[in-house]
Amino acid sequence: MGIEEIFRAEHGRILATLIRLLGDIDMAEEALQEAFAAALEQWPAAGTPANPVAWLVSTGRHKAIDRLRRRARLVEKQEEIARHVELTAPLSAGDEETPVPEDRLRLIFTCCHPALAPEAQVALTLRTLGGLSTEEIARAFLVPAPTMAQRLVRAKAKIRVARIPYQVPLDDALTERLEAVMVVVYLVFNEGYAASFGARLVRHELCDQAIRLARMLVELLPAHAEPQGLLALMLLHDSRRETRLDGSGDIVLLEDQDRTRWDRAQIEEGAALVEAALRAGARPPGPYALQAAIAAVHAQAPTAAATDWAQIAALYGVLARVHPSPVVELNRAVAVAMSGDLVRGLAMVDELDHGGEIAGYHLLPAARAELLRRLGRHVEAAESYRRALALVTNEAERRHLEKQLREIAP
Amino acid sequence: MRYMLMIYRDEKEWEGMSVQERGVVYQEAVDYSEARRPSGLYQGGEPLEPTRTATTVRMKGGKAVMTDGPFAETKEQFAGYTILEAEDLDEALAFVTGHPLVRAGFSIEVRPIRVGPPR
Lengths: 410, 119
Fold this sequence. Notes:
heterodimer; A: mainly alpha; 71% helix; elongated; B: alpha+beta; Alpha-Beta Plaits; two-stranded antiparallel ribbon; 4 helices
């Protein structure tokens, strides 16, 4: 593996270990930078060490101690001298330089602490565990680089000054905090998934990062089922990556996507994870597992026409009980319609419409328009498409709705 | 690490409750805090009289000027403070999230107390 690849793949693990050894995120980041610089200098000539990660951790730690020693000589701050003394003491049993699984768990729980603003949680997670540069994160979230840099600086300062502890939460707290971590991971995925055509390359990286983070959670928290559900959900969405947009960046509906270009390996893995999550997990199943189960039904249908909509409607029914929301109800209504009962599906959509809970949500009138179109009620369908167009914000979705409208009201 | 809890409440809403109801909340808060004094977590705290009893002093035109009333008109008003000595933010937050005042509709800001001059 080239140094670049090692950097990307192992950044999180090495940083997490250094944070444990040095007790400070900033110090650990500096140490990591210096260790990689040293690697770039020495490895081409001396050859890549047998255990690159261990080499980098050890080098990073020594560079940090040197740095502190120099600073302690120049500025006799009590704190720094004390820290230096601590760090140069011989490593006791608990201070192994070898990365341990808990290191990365500690890091992600700290990055996703609820005391930090959600944007800060995302940025910090991608920076520390994902190894993305500040510029890359800024580009991915369409934010100026200095703004993103400041966001990271402030988040790390808050961790230090307010003393957010660097630890894995215990028991009950862990389940609650794990939910917050999964929200961050899924948010990263959705940012990448909703890529506009121009930003495609950067956004793919986000989906990959999110999937990597979910794999880490699955690996490090085997007793919890929801990370498996989350990983499955993202793999199944990602399997359709190549077919979601056409050449001009327009949306291709699920039913029109070329299923031969769906990633079968991801679908297989996703489906297996869903099964495991549903079997081993809590009763009732968690929302990620259920959404993944729905995605799996779609993914495993050989053609759009062969989709088991009844199964999907049933799963939405369970989801509506476990994680009720008007959006879930809308999706359920559409599934009911597609399973053959257009009239009942439309009635469910209308009921939601009258409830007014998701009045600004363009997908409601869009779904309504679609069902009316299939029932041949073109005048009403056109009116609903127009309602949807007044609410839609995404360009690709707008073009799609305009196309649908043109077909029935030229 | 010491933290200050700044406790806020909608005064109008609070004073809309009977004296007895408010007394119950007060006593729950006192009991809760005092139970955590022996461990050293709870260091002390005090409720404040309502904001209409406040006087604010600021510089205006080169002079220190006094005005009747609180620092600013806010939706929720500053109602009291507590000092904690906690190992870390999580310990402070655990104290706050279980606090009877939160259940009774108070909002509580948790901020670390700085030791020494500005950095």
